[in-house]
Amino acid sequence: MTVVEESACRQELPLVGLLKGIDCLELAGETLAGEKVCMITSDSREVLPGALFVAVRGYCTDGHRFIRSAVERGAVAIICEEFPTEIASSCLYIKVADARKALAEAARIFYGYASDRLLIVGVTGTNGKTTTAKLIMAMFNACGLSAGYIGTNLCRIGDIDIPLDRTTPEAHGLHALFSRMVGAGCRAVVMEVSSHALVLQRVYGIRFHAALFTNLTMEHLDFHKSMQEYASAKQQLFDQLAPDGFAVFNSDDPYAVQMSERVAHDKIYCCTLTGSFPMLWCSRFFEAEILQTTFGSSTVALHFPDMVMNMQIGLPGIFNVMNVLEAAAIGTGMGFSPEDICRSLSAVSTVDGRMERIGDRTQQRFVFVDYAHTPDALCKALDALRALKAEGARLFVVFGCGGNRDCSKRAEMGRLAAETADEVIITSDNPRDEDPELILDDIERGIVGGSYRRISDRAEAIRLAVSMLKDGDVLLVAGKGHEKYQEIGGQKLFFSDQELLRQCMQENGHGYPNGERM
Fold first, then answer.
1. pTM for the model
2. CB neighbours of residue 161 within 10 Å
3. Per-residue pLDDT tens for 407-434?
4. Strands (DSSP E) along 101-240, which ranges?
5. First vs last C-alpha separation in the chain
6. Which residues contact 18 (CB under 8 A, 6 or more apart)?
């Protein structure tokens, strides 16, 4: 049962109440006096008697084609951008200029303005969103501010995890989750906001108490067509700051200036690892000085606006230092003390599928799983591990590229892997509807010189990599991270990098006893 379908079991609102909050151009048809709406959906297959169906124009199909089906299934009202040729007398048709915006407006009303009762923190950027958002959520809860999380494939409300299909759900699903969070006693939510969500109005009408920009690198150019278009999409988040809100920027990223250009100067917080603040109008400055790094952690001096705190970060890699720094800036804006911020962030030792160490930490073979599926993320993960490995040890990488996604990054990822790692195995990621061998062909075009192996079967590729490891060697299995499936030919088949690695490591004599995670 979806979040929307589940809400239908307990939610009702008079149709007239919804109409008052929607910018309506014209009405057609009719409905009974006092008619109530029991659910909102943009998928005609979800429609139940008493539903409001919103006909959204998508990239693959047009919701207007399914209006008749929605009416036959019992919809009492239809929101659309043009009326159908046949108007059913038992249904009210509401014509609007933008169905996506109307969907967001209707959902906000239907779910009792739950979004207005939450402190909402939006995290956007190409890489680092999930780790940073989960760090912030953990910090909020540790500091006494009950918070939920919405992000990559997951919503978390207290101890309950709800699977999601998208990083940022459609507007009606999103507001349904806000309503559940309010009902569970949450006072805040930390959510990843994708560029798709911003362009497609999934977060339309939401006011963010805080917004955070991590970085912007090559990704989603099949959707946005250019980096400038991609950047402009991300920038929209900062136009939705609440009047008393603030924004945090990774000022080491060249796109930070553009992201912040429409934000009032007194609301801008800047984070740096380089000591450089190109945005001279920052109102608050945050800097991290790295004192020591290992495969398991980093020791840093965290520079708050008014004091310096030494702390240990339980996540490997320089990029995770920036993630923690950005979370600390959010905590400062929320009024937490530096002591509480450092204490709560130091307690986070792992984020599923993000530079996640697999195996017994007493062993001398270092194996990591990471979600890196962009050129920048793969490069940063490999750079971090290369800097930590012992002299003479080898760095292995197993990775692929997803099908039906931006293919322009494939050759670049091949080039970066070959230039950074000692042993490269290219394999399948989620090929989806593409031929896995053709995806590998694209990756190969970027590998000039150097040796590599090509094995389309991901399980076979991982087994080979583990069997080749010697003491001191480092292995990164990249691309899928937290995912527990592989999408091939329209089917999602169970597949876990972590589980396979544990099995292979035990078989090769360098796993951990009794399958326990350390």
1. 0.88
2. 12
3. 989 999 999 999 999 999 999 999 999 9
4. 119-124, 147-151, 154-157, 160-163, 188-192, 208-213
5. 35
6. 37, 52, 77, 106, 109, 110
